[in-house]
Design brief:
Length: 325
């Protein structure tokens, strides 16, 4: 008797889901234990943010992009920035070692959590540096707290809504009910390989740097919880940008946008260049030949943008005791 095709498919799906669940639960326990927090925590239980702070001087806050965590930023421009600034890096909610809250994961709500942490840590009118989707969170931060923000430096920012085939995976990960079953089920078998491919793609046309490969624990990026958070990030950011962009023309804080002319992830014409055209407070730097992860290859451009923004902050608004000149 032939085994029915539908029954075979159902049995295969059940087996794959069961194996994925076991793999996902093992990785959820093992990977964070092998990669413990490198910094400290701020915030109340269940909504804690993990942060690392280095350097002394005027305050900078660094916000990483999609599919990453603060270790990625530590592998990038931090050494140079920390020579002249106090740099505070956060794991965004649901990434690295920060607590997730998928029901409150919009850029505005992530900005509110980071702002609460900034206040608790006593940071003074920081310049906020955001990369990619972290740039969306930075835009939400500057829009909500202009009097408490020195300015923004946006690195290859996600600045305008975009929908495409690339949203299918995030949408499935983030789907209520179904997303959890998929993320801790069959997707847990394939997400590590997907993330390896995605990491290479976001660095193109460059390659991941040796320091990135040393510093960033790839296993942390593809945990089921991180993939779920990533899915929520993508979906909610795309919706939030339709509201955020309406305020670009009246944006109150100085902004400097840096784009890689060879960015294949977020096309500069649709995002960074367009943002600079629509936002009178923005300045634009283009880096020929560099892609989406430009801050790993030209940290001096990031520092120059920070200094340019700092020069536009009204003197009366600059922290008197933070080393401003």
């Amino acid at each position: 008797m032939k085994f029915p095709v539908k029954a075979a498919a159902a049995a295969g799906l059940i087996a794959t889901s069961s194996i994925g669940l076991a793999v996902g639960m093992i990785r959820t326990q093992r990977v964070p234990r092998e990669n413990p927090p490198s910094g400290h925590f701020v915030g109340e239980a269940g909504r804690r943010l993990h942060y690392v702070q280095v350097g002394e001087g005027p305050d900078l806050v660094l916000i990483h992009g999609a599919s990453m965590n603060l270790q990625e930023m530590l592998a990038g421009p931090v050494d140079l920035l920390a020579r002249t600034h106090r740099v505070t890096l956060f794991d965004r909610p649901g990434h690295g070692h920060s607590d997730a809250d998928l029901e409150h994961a919009s850029p505005q709500e992530q900005a509110a959590r980071i702002h609460a942490a900034v206040s608790e840590l006593g940071l003074e009118r920081p310049i906020v540096v955001g990369h990619s989707l972290g740039g969306t969170v930075a835009l939400a931060y500057g829009a909500a707290y202009p009097e408490e923000t020195g300015g923004l430096v946006l690195l290859a920012p996600l600045s305008h809504a975009v929908w495409g085939v690339g949203h299918i995976g995030p949408a499935l990960h983030a789907a209520p009910g179904l997303g959890a079953g998929l993320s801790w089920g069959p997707f847990a078998l394939f997400d590590p390989a997907v993330m390896r491919f995605a990491t290479s793609a976001i660095f193109a046309p460059q390659r991941p740097t040796p320091r990135f490969n040393r510093c960033v624990a790839r296993g942390m990026l593809s945990l089921p919880s991180a993939m779920r958070a990533d899915g929520a990030d993508f979906m909610l950011a795309t919706m939030a940008l339709q509201t955020l962009r309406r305020g670009y023309a009246e944006f109150q804080v100085p902004v400097h946008v840096i784009v890689g002319a060879a960015d294949r992830v977020l096309k500069p014409d649709w995002h960074g260049r367009r943002l600079a055209r629509e936002m009178p407070s923005a300045r634009l730097t283009e880096l020929p030949g560099l892609g989406h992860m430009l801050h790993h290859f030209d940290p001096k451009a990031v520092l120059a943008a920070v200094e340019e923004v700092r020069a536009r902050i009204p003197h009366s608004a600059q922290p008197a005791d933070a080393g401003w000149t």
